[in-house]
Amino acid sequence: xxxxxxxxxxxxxxxxxxxxxxRPLASVAVSQGAPDxxxxxxxxxxxxxxxxxxxxxYNAAGLDGPLTPLxxxxxxxxxxxxxxxxxxxxxxxxxxxxxxxxxxRRASGERQRRVRHEDIDPVxxxxxxxxxxxxxx
Length: 137
Prior knowledge:
Layout: E1 2-5, E2 9-16, E3 21-31, E4 34-35, H1 37-47, E5 52-56, H2 68-82, E6 86-90, H3 94-107, H4 117-136
Parallel strand pairs: 1-5, 5-6
Antiparallel strand pairs: 1-2, 2-3, 3-4
Helix pairs in contact: 3-4
């Protein structure tokens, strides 16, 4: 399961190591640096992931960004809460890729409504998970 942490929302995606595919699941509210744990608990119970991939926000130079310490703290909390391994993966440009994918789907007519911020986060988590799956092969 991939988690794309932000100050307002947490994008969640689930994947399969056999098919090497990922799919967006949900956008979970974040308030005061913490996600809605009840909602995340339900998603984890429903999907029972073996591990978590958390996007870590490095800047273009590969250095820590302003959110990096908060994301590291979040990743530690996830590992403690769910007792499963957590891997950090550079999330650089995943949101941009997600937005591009959603806009392409809208332009092709596959998607009817306009792209909103809460739509981007779970797709960004799926992009992150696809990157992790590609590296794990």
